[in-house]
Design goal:
Arc Repressor Mutant, subunit A; Rossmann fold; alpha/beta; 310 residues
Protein backbone atom coordinates (compact mmCIF):
# COMPACT_ATOMS: atom_id res chain seq x y z
CA UNK A 1 0.00 0.00 0.00
CA UNK A 2 1.30 3.42 -0.95
CA UNK A 3 2.49 5.74 1.80
CA UNK A 4 -0.43 8.17 2.34
CA UNK A 5 1.87 11.15 2.80
CA UNK A 6 3.68 10.45 -0.45
CA UNK A 7 0.34 9.81 -2.18
CA UNK A 8 -0.85 13.27 -1.10
CA UNK A 9 2.26 14.93 -2.53
CA UNK A 10 2.10 13.22 -5.91
CA UNK A 11 -1.63 13.95 -6.15
CA UNK A 12 -1.04 17.64 -5.52
CA UNK A 13 1.89 17.65 -7.93
CA UNK A 14 -0.36 16.30 -10.69
CA UNK A 15 -3.10 18.82 -9.88
CA UNK A 16 -0.69 21.75 -9.87
CA UNK A 17 0.84 20.72 -13.16
CA UNK A 18 -2.60 20.32 -14.75
CA UNK A 19 -3.41 23.85 -13.60
CA UNK A 20 -0.57 25.06 -15.82
CA UNK A 21 -0.77 22.52 -18.65
CA UNK A 22 -4.50 22.28 -19.40
CA UNK A 23 -5.27 25.95 -20.21
CA UNK A 24 -2.19 26.22 -22.43
CA UNK A 25 -3.17 23.03 -24.27
CA UNK A 26 -6.77 24.21 -24.72
CA UNK A 27 -5.61 27.51 -26.17
CA UNK A 28 -3.66 25.80 -28.94
CA UNK A 29 -5.93 22.87 -29.78
CA UNK A 30 -9.62 21.97 -30.01
CA UNK A 31 -8.93 18.48 -28.64
CA UNK A 32 -6.93 17.75 -25.49
CA UNK A 33 -6.44 14.41 -23.74
CA UNK A 34 -5.29 13.48 -20.25
CA UNK A 35 -4.68 9.76 -19.74
CA UNK A 36 -4.13 8.19 -16.32
CA UNK A 37 -3.25 4.53 -15.92
CA UNK A 38 -2.68 2.95 -12.53
CA UNK A 39 -1.85 -0.61 -11.60
CA UNK A 40 -3.09 -0.76 -8.02
CA UNK A 41 -6.50 -1.11 -6.44
CA UNK A 42 -6.43 2.53 -5.33
CA UNK A 43 -4.94 5.39 -7.34
CA UNK A 44 -4.44 7.53 -4.24
CA UNK A 45 -7.01 10.05 -5.41
CA UNK A 46 -5.16 10.83 -8.65
CA UNK A 47 -8.18 10.44 -10.95
CA UNK A 48 -10.52 12.48 -8.77
CA UNK A 49 -7.87 15.16 -8.28
CA UNK A 50 -7.28 15.33 -12.03
CA UNK A 51 -11.01 15.59 -12.75
CA UNK A 52 -11.50 18.39 -10.23
CA UNK A 53 -8.52 20.27 -11.67
CA UNK A 54 -9.77 19.93 -15.26
CA UNK A 55 -13.29 21.01 -14.28
CA UNK A 56 -11.88 24.43 -13.37
CA UNK A 57 -11.44 25.20 -17.07
CA UNK A 58 -15.03 24.80 -18.24
CA UNK A 59 -14.94 28.41 -19.48
CA UNK A 60 -12.30 27.40 -22.04
CA UNK A 61 -14.25 24.46 -23.45
CA UNK A 62 -16.54 26.26 -25.90
CA UNK A 63 -15.96 24.51 -29.22
CA UNK A 64 -13.34 22.26 -27.66
CA UNK A 65 -13.15 18.73 -26.28
CA UNK A 66 -11.25 17.82 -23.12
CA UNK A 67 -11.05 14.09 -22.40
CA UNK A 68 -9.91 12.34 -19.23
CA UNK A 69 -9.21 8.66 -19.79
CA UNK A 70 -8.60 6.47 -16.73
CA UNK A 71 -7.26 2.94 -17.14
CA UNK A 72 -7.57 1.03 -13.88
CA UNK A 73 -6.31 -2.48 -13.20
CA UNK A 74 -9.28 -3.35 -11.00
CA UNK A 75 -12.95 -2.42 -10.98
CA UNK A 76 -13.01 -0.75 -7.57
CA UNK A 77 -15.95 1.60 -8.07
CA UNK A 78 -13.83 4.39 -9.53
CA UNK A 79 -16.24 5.03 -12.40
CA UNK A 80 -19.08 5.63 -9.94
CA UNK A 81 -16.98 7.97 -7.81
CA UNK A 82 -15.93 10.04 -10.81
CA UNK A 83 -19.52 10.16 -12.06
CA UNK A 84 -20.57 11.52 -8.65
CA UNK A 85 -17.88 14.20 -8.87
CA UNK A 86 -19.09 15.19 -12.32
CA UNK A 87 -22.66 15.54 -11.10
CA UNK A 88 -21.61 17.54 -8.05
CA UNK A 89 -19.46 19.90 -10.15
CA UNK A 90 -21.97 20.00 -13.02
CA UNK A 91 -19.20 19.51 -15.53
CA UNK A 92 -20.10 20.36 -19.14
CA UNK A 93 -20.46 17.62 -21.78
CA UNK A 94 -17.29 18.90 -23.47
CA UNK A 95 -15.37 17.44 -20.50
CA UNK A 96 -15.60 13.71 -21.18
CA UNK A 97 -14.52 11.05 -18.68
CA UNK A 98 -13.92 7.43 -19.69
CA UNK A 99 -12.97 4.70 -17.21
CA UNK A 100 -11.59 1.47 -18.66
CA UNK A 101 -10.73 -1.65 -16.68
CA UNK A 102 -7.56 -3.41 -17.73
CA UNK A 103 -3.83 -3.74 -17.27
CA UNK A 104 -1.59 -0.76 -17.94
CA UNK A 105 -0.23 -2.51 -21.02
CA UNK A 106 -3.51 -1.62 -22.75
CA UNK A 107 -2.73 2.10 -22.47
CA UNK A 108 -1.65 2.61 -26.12
CA UNK A 109 -4.86 1.02 -27.40
CA UNK A 110 -7.00 2.99 -24.95
CA UNK A 111 -5.42 6.25 -26.07
CA UNK A 112 -5.98 5.38 -29.71
CA UNK A 113 -9.65 4.65 -29.00
CA UNK A 114 -9.96 7.99 -27.22
CA UNK A 115 -8.76 9.85 -30.30
CA UNK A 116 -5.62 11.26 -28.70
CA UNK A 117 -3.66 11.19 -31.96
CA UNK A 118 -2.82 14.65 -33.26
CA UNK A 119 -3.85 16.44 -30.07
CA UNK A 120 -1.95 17.64 -26.97
CA UNK A 121 -1.75 14.67 -24.61
CA UNK A 122 -0.53 14.24 -21.05
CA UNK A 123 -0.04 10.60 -20.11
CA UNK A 124 0.30 9.67 -16.44
CA UNK A 125 1.41 6.15 -15.50
CA UNK A 126 1.21 5.26 -11.80
CA UNK A 127 2.48 1.88 -10.66
CA UNK A 128 3.06 2.71 -6.96
CA UNK A 129 4.33 -0.43 -5.24
CA UNK A 130 3.69 -2.70 -8.23
CA UNK A 131 6.45 -3.86 -10.60
CA UNK A 132 7.17 -1.56 -13.54
CA UNK A 133 5.02 -2.39 -16.58
CA UNK A 134 6.27 -4.05 -19.73
CA UNK A 135 8.00 -1.75 -22.23
CA UNK A 136 5.03 -1.99 -24.60
CA UNK A 137 2.99 0.17 -22.23
CA UNK A 138 5.38 3.05 -22.76
CA UNK A 139 4.46 3.32 -26.42
CA UNK A 140 1.60 5.47 -25.15
CA UNK A 141 4.09 8.18 -24.20
CA UNK A 142 4.53 9.06 -27.85
CA UNK A 143 0.79 9.40 -28.45
CA UNK A 144 -0.65 12.71 -29.50
CA UNK A 145 0.96 15.96 -30.55
CA UNK A 146 3.04 17.90 -28.04
CA UNK A 147 2.85 14.79 -25.86
CA UNK A 148 4.11 14.86 -22.29
CA UNK A 149 4.48 12.00 -19.83
CA UNK A 150 4.54 11.63 -16.06
CA UNK A 151 5.76 8.44 -14.40
CA UNK A 152 4.77 7.78 -10.77
CA UNK A 153 6.72 4.69 -9.76
CA UNK A 154 7.43 2.75 -6.60
CA UNK A 155 10.73 2.38 -4.80
CA UNK A 156 13.51 2.79 -7.41
CA UNK A 157 15.61 0.25 -5.52
CA UNK A 158 13.06 -2.44 -6.47
CA UNK A 159 12.86 -1.74 -10.18
CA UNK A 160 15.39 -2.02 -12.97
CA UNK A 161 13.53 0.59 -15.02
CA UNK A 162 15.52 3.63 -16.15
CA UNK A 163 12.76 6.24 -16.48
CA UNK A 164 15.03 8.78 -18.16
CA UNK A 165 15.94 6.32 -20.91
CA UNK A 166 12.30 5.24 -21.34
CA UNK A 167 11.07 8.82 -21.70
CA UNK A 168 13.83 9.90 -24.06
CA UNK A 169 13.35 6.85 -26.27
CA UNK A 170 9.66 7.84 -26.59
CA UNK A 171 10.39 11.33 -27.89
CA UNK A 172 10.83 13.35 -24.69
CA UNK A 173 14.33 14.87 -24.80
CA UNK A 174 13.81 17.00 -21.69
CA UNK A 175 13.54 14.72 -18.67
CA UNK A 176 13.70 15.23 -14.92
CA UNK A 177 13.23 12.91 -11.95
CA UNK A 178 12.84 13.23 -8.18
CA UNK A 179 12.39 10.80 -5.30
CA UNK A 180 9.68 11.37 -2.69
CA UNK A 181 10.85 10.14 0.71
CA UNK A 182 8.77 9.69 3.88
CA UNK A 183 8.79 7.28 6.83
CA UNK A 184 11.46 5.15 5.16
CA UNK A 185 9.38 4.78 1.99
CA UNK A 186 10.54 6.03 -1.41
CA UNK A 187 8.66 6.67 -4.65
CA UNK A 188 10.16 7.89 -7.90
CA UNK A 189 8.57 10.60 -10.06
CA UNK A 190 9.84 11.22 -13.61
CA UNK A 191 8.58 13.72 -16.16
CA UNK A 192 9.33 14.00 -19.86
CA UNK A 193 8.56 16.65 -22.46
CA UNK A 194 9.93 18.21 -25.63
CA UNK A 195 9.06 21.71 -24.41
CA UNK A 196 11.33 23.88 -22.29
CA UNK A 197 8.25 25.69 -21.03
CA UNK A 198 6.71 22.37 -20.05
CA UNK A 199 9.80 21.43 -18.07
CA UNK A 200 9.82 24.81 -16.32
CA UNK A 201 6.12 24.49 -15.48
CA UNK A 202 6.61 21.02 -14.01
CA UNK A 203 9.56 22.16 -11.89
CA UNK A 204 7.53 25.16 -10.68
CA UNK A 205 4.66 22.83 -9.72
CA UNK A 206 7.06 20.46 -7.99
CA UNK A 207 8.47 23.09 -5.64
CA UNK A 208 5.12 24.83 -5.11
CA UNK A 209 3.30 21.85 -3.56
CA UNK A 210 2.22 22.41 0.02
CA UNK A 211 4.75 21.28 2.59
CA UNK A 212 3.67 17.91 3.94
CA UNK A 213 5.19 16.94 7.26
CA UNK A 214 7.70 14.16 6.82
CA UNK A 215 7.85 14.22 3.00
CA UNK A 216 11.06 15.42 1.41
CA UNK A 217 12.67 15.35 -2.02
CA UNK A 218 15.86 13.56 -3.00
CA UNK A 219 17.79 13.90 -6.22
CA UNK A 220 18.28 10.39 -7.72
CA UNK A 221 21.63 11.57 -9.10
CA UNK A 222 22.98 13.05 -5.88
CA UNK A 223 25.68 10.61 -4.70
CA UNK A 224 25.29 11.86 -1.13
CA UNK A 225 21.52 11.35 -1.19
CA UNK A 226 20.74 14.59 0.64
CA UNK A 227 17.09 15.11 1.58
CA UNK A 228 15.51 18.44 0.70
CA UNK A 229 12.52 20.12 2.33
CA UNK A 230 9.76 21.05 -0.11
CA UNK A 231 10.01 24.83 -0.39
CA UNK A 232 9.70 27.65 -2.91
CA UNK A 233 13.31 28.45 -2.03
CA UNK A 234 14.95 25.01 -1.70
CA UNK A 235 18.28 24.65 0.09
CA UNK A 236 20.96 25.36 -2.54
CA UNK A 237 23.68 23.05 -1.15
CA UNK A 238 23.19 20.04 -3.47
CA UNK A 239 22.83 22.26 -6.55
CA UNK A 240 26.00 24.10 -5.59
CA UNK A 241 27.89 20.79 -5.45
CA UNK A 242 26.37 19.48 -8.67
CA UNK A 243 27.16 22.64 -10.64
CA UNK A 244 30.76 22.67 -9.40
CA UNK A 245 31.18 18.98 -10.22
CA UNK A 246 29.68 19.52 -13.67
CA UNK A 247 31.99 22.45 -14.39
CA UNK A 248 34.99 20.47 -13.15
CA UNK A 249 34.10 17.60 -15.49
CA UNK A 250 33.15 19.56 -18.60
CA UNK A 251 35.00 22.85 -18.29
CA UNK A 252 33.56 26.36 -18.70
CA UNK A 253 29.91 26.74 -19.65
CA UNK A 254 27.50 29.54 -20.35
CA UNK A 255 24.72 30.44 -17.95
CA UNK A 256 22.23 29.10 -20.52
CA UNK A 257 24.04 25.75 -20.63
CA UNK A 258 24.16 25.56 -16.84
CA UNK A 259 20.45 26.40 -16.57
CA UNK A 260 19.72 23.56 -19.00
CA UNK A 261 21.87 21.21 -16.91
CA UNK A 262 19.98 22.22 -13.76
CA UNK A 263 16.61 21.65 -15.39
CA UNK A 264 17.26 18.20 -16.78
CA UNK A 265 19.99 16.73 -14.57
CA UNK A 266 18.96 17.92 -11.09
CA UNK A 267 15.76 18.33 -9.09
CA UNK A 268 16.13 22.10 -9.12
CA UNK A 269 14.49 24.68 -11.38
CA UNK A 270 16.56 26.40 -14.09
CA UNK A 271 15.86 29.70 -12.30
CA UNK A 272 17.69 28.39 -9.22
CA UNK A 273 20.91 28.34 -11.25
CA UNK A 274 21.43 32.10 -11.15
CA UNK A 275 20.93 32.22 -7.38
CA UNK A 276 23.60 29.56 -6.84
CA UNK A 277 25.99 31.02 -9.43
CA UNK A 278 25.79 34.40 -7.69
CA UNK A 279 26.85 32.74 -4.44
CA UNK A 280 29.66 30.81 -6.14
CA UNK A 281 30.96 34.00 -7.73
CA UNK A 282 30.91 35.77 -4.37
CA UNK A 283 32.84 32.85 -2.82
CA UNK A 284 35.46 32.96 -5.59
CA UNK A 285 34.77 29.36 -6.64
CA UNK A 286 33.93 30.40 -10.21
CA UNK A 287 34.66 33.38 -12.42
CA UNK A 288 32.61 34.98 -15.16
CA UNK A 289 33.29 36.57 -18.53
CA UNK A 290 32.50 39.39 -19.00
CA UNK A 291 33.30 40.28 -15.41
CA UNK A 292 30.51 42.82 -14.93
CA UNK A 293 26.89 43.26 -15.86
CA UNK A 294 23.79 41.14 -15.66
CA UNK A 295 24.22 37.37 -15.30
CA UNK A 296 22.76 36.82 -18.75
CA UNK A 297 22.59 33.57 -20.69
CA UNK A 298 25.73 34.18 -22.73
CA UNK A 299 27.95 34.87 -19.69
CA UNK A 300 30.70 32.25 -19.51
CA UNK A 301 31.27 30.58 -16.13
CA UNK A 302 34.69 29.04 -15.37
CA UNK A 303 35.54 26.98 -12.27
CA UNK A 304 38.45 28.17 -10.13
CA UNK A 305 38.46 25.43 -7.46
CA UNK A 306 37.51 21.80 -6.99
CA UNK A 307 34.00 21.13 -5.66
CA UNK A 308 33.68 21.44 -1.92
CA UNK A 309 33.35 18.24 0.08
CA UNK A 310 30.52 19.49 2.31
Amino acid sequence: MANPRIAAVRRELLVRYLDAWAPAALHRSRRVTVALAHAGEDDGGLAEGALRALAEFDDLLAGRRLTLVVLTATDDGLAGRLDAVQRALRTPPDLAVHVVTGEVGRLPAVLAAAGAAGAPTLTVLATADRPAPAPAAFAAFAAGRAAEALLLLGDPARTALDPRAVLRERGHPLVTAVELVADGDVELVAFGTSSGRGLDAFKDAMWAVDEFAGVRYRDPRDPAGHLLDVSLTPHPGPLRRELLAHLAATGPGTVTELRSFTGTETVYRPADTNRVLTALLAAGLVTRSPEHGRLAGDVLITPTAAPAEN
